[in-house]
Amino acid sequence: MAAAAAACALSRKRQLQPAGKAMRRGGRRSGPGGEAEEEEELEREHFRRIINAFRYYGINMHERVNRAERQFRSLPAIQQKLLPQFLPHLDKIRKCIDHNQGILQTVVNDCTHMFENKEYGDDENGKITPASTFDMDKLKSTLKQFVRDWSETGKPERDSCYQPIINEIVKNFPKDRWDLSKVNILVPGAGLGRLAWEIAMLGYTCQGNEWSLFMLFSSNFVLNRCSETNSYKLYPWIHQFSNNKRSADQIQPVYFPDVDPHSLPPDANFSMTAGDFQEIYSECNIWDCIATCFFIDTAHNVIDYIDTIWKILKPGGIWINLGPLLYHFENLANELSIELSYEDIKSVILQYGFHIEVENESVLTTYTVNELSMMKYYYECVMFVVRKPGSSV
């Protein structure tokens, strides 16, 4: 039984066009008058909070290293003498922190003006205040996203989870049967934009969508400010004080970008949107393909995602998914979180009317893995390709 009876509203997309153009941001739906103003103010506060987290990074990390030094100095002198390189290693970490802070400051330097349809005001001289542990964890995770999406170090990870999706796109939309520039592909949860960029490099019209400002600030920097390969470096592993085989592994640099993001063909059609996937994509029968990678478990209710995908896919269009089910809101007491098994998700997909064409329940991959670490997490992901029937209701 198909479940596509609900009518579609007009699309509310706000675009980011890479390569020097400002992005457009789609906010949440809000009511007239005071409600709209209140919503705008909340968005400005959120924007400034994330900017503050970027600026607070160095303070936060130096406090962590200072704590390690205090604890080391509390040891008996005879034990300290056994580790003559411990304090010099902490000094090396401090230099890495300062370098990372410089990159993060560069990332946010023009963020207050990055949206062509929103103006958040320049808070450059604003006081840096302590950021929450949650925001600092997000920021440190974002540093590892540079590795995943835009470094040579991240290539094995990209090959394991992006390449199967790309292969399915090429198989379903071959250039000898399709005008690739007229094949519209959407990548929700695009992160720093590499998967969407790779799809556009092949000649397809591709749009990435991302909600997180941590990701949006960083993708804006890579896509619009980086033009020489490996021209920047980060130290993404300095936050990891456990499971290091060698001290030097903690301060190993990673260079980015491994390709020139501006090397897209002149006629390439690549863009990104900033905002909530469900709220800014509501126009029916628009997309030939929707590609989701490590995305569907970001939902409060994954059925809402399935509903949106069903509506916005063209009849005959395909949805390609690869990822685990590590539900992001599972342990947040004040957030709705519906945690479905893959079996349940598959049942819902079939009830909507999708036809399963490819299904693999054992795709082994990682997510922002540190190959130098003594501890690594592996995901046994599900990958599927489902098609919306050509004569959907």
UniProtKB/TrEMBL annotation:
Task: Give the species.
Answer: Podarcis muralis
Query: What exactly does this protein do?
Result: N-methyltransferase that catalyzes the formation of anserine (beta-alanyl-N(Pi)-methyl-L-histidine) from carnosine. Anserine, a methylated derivative of carnosine (beta-alanyl-L-histidine), is an abundant constituent of vertebrate skeletal muscles. Also methylates other L-histidine-containing di- and tripeptides such as Gly-Gly-His, Gly-His and homocarnosine (GABA-His).
Q: Which InterPro entries match?
A: CARME (IPR012901), SAM-dependent_MTases_sf (IPR029063)
* Annotated family: Belongs to the carnosine N-methyltransferase family.
A single cellular component GO annotation = nucleus
Q: Coiled-coil stretches, from where to where? A: none
Give the subcellular location.
Cytoplasm, Cytosol; Nucleus
**What is this protein called in UniProt?**
Carnosine N-methyltransferase
Pfam families (UniProt xref): CARME
What keywords sit in the KW lines? Cytoplasm, Methyltransferase, Nucleus, S-adenosyl-L-methionine, Transferase
Gene Ontology terms: biological process: carnosine metabolic process; methylation
Which top-rank group of organisms is this from?
Answer: Eukaryota
EC number(s) per UniProt? 2.1.1.22
Give a GO molecular function annotation for the protein. protein homodimerization activity
* Positions of the UniProt region annotated as Disordered: 1-42
